[in-house]
Design a protein that fits this description.
Elements (H helix, E strand, L loop, with lengths): L1 E6 L6 H12 L3 E3 H15 L6 H10 L2 E3 L3 E3 L2 E2 L7 H10 L3 H18 L1 E6 L2 H5 L5 E6 L2 H12 L3 H21 L12 E4 L5 H11 L1
Parallel strand pairs: 1-6, 1-7, 2-6, 7-8
Antiparallel strand pairs: 3-4, 4-5
The structure holds cytidine-5'-diphosphate.
Cytidine-5'-diphosphate binds next to helix 2, helix 4 and helix 8.
């Protein structure tokens, strides 16, 4: 099956680029970050200890997740809740646990089987989940550019709000890149695209040219 892997840090433009590439290829997109966020929301709601990997893995396995244009958690539409600052601040802690990743990676592979391939975006797609992907793109940009993009999406303005967004991104970068299990890293055969000085249309063109 045909898989296009798009990995990279927060605010690098994965979702925008992924959607455009899906549009052009007729593949569907899977946002694996939304899955980690939904598990994190469930953990916060149930008061599960965020340091207890075994409990979090069990929790993840007990949930019915559906990730598409809307994100459903046991049938409830949590599309907006999973983008809350609380979930953002906890998701990298939850995602660092191997039992959680095992459950979600299996679901990601099953999703691709069912959909006959896909554009899959995340942190470990080219390195761990689909090492044989047809195309691997690692999208990145300077922390400043990523902060401004994310702030724009959130409607954050002013020095204080911008500072909070920058801090959140820096903290997730640190946790995602530094964890022992499936850290964020560039796959050996990935094409690195630095979008600091590019607009997202130009990035999409570059990805389509690679394809
Ligand atoms: O959209 P944004 O770049 O803010 O992040 P996301 O894709 O929603 O992912 C949220 C978090 O989930 C990341 O910071 C990682 O901690 C985790 N994640 C992961 O560990 N592995 C993935 N394949 C995707 C996300």
């Amino acid at each position: 099956v045909r898989v296009i892997a798009i990995d990279g840090p927060a605010g690098s433009g994965k979702s925008t680029v992924g959607a455009a590439v899906a549009d052009q290829t007729g593949l569907e997109v899977l946002d694996t970050g939304a899955m980690y966020r939904a598990v994190t929301l469930a953990a916060l709601r149930s008061g599960t200890d965020l340091l207890d990997g075994t409990a979090l893995g069990k929790l993840a396995a007990s949930l019915r997740l559906s990730v598409g244009p809307r994100v459903l958690l046991d049938g409830e539409d949590v599309t907006h809740q999973i983008r809350s600052p609380e979930v953002g601040a906890a998701v990298s802690v939850v995602a660092a646990h191997a039992p959680v990743r095992e459950v979600l990676v299996e679901q990601q592979r099953a999703w691709v089987e069912e959909h006959g391939g896909g554009v899959v975006e995340g942190r470990d797609i080219g390195t761990v989940v689909f090492p044989d992907a047809e195309l691997k793109v690692y999208l990145t940009a300077s922390p400043q550019a990523r902060t401004h993009r994310r702030a724009g999406e959130l409607g954050a303005t002013g020095a204080e709000q911008l500072g909070a967004v920058a801090e959140g991104i820096a903290e997730r970068d640190r946790l995602d890149s530094g964890r022992a299990v499936s850290p964020l890293q560039v796959a050996e055969d990935a094409h690195v695209i630095d979008s600091t000085a590019l607009d997202l249309d130009e990035v999409v063109k570059e990805v389509l040219a690679l394809l």
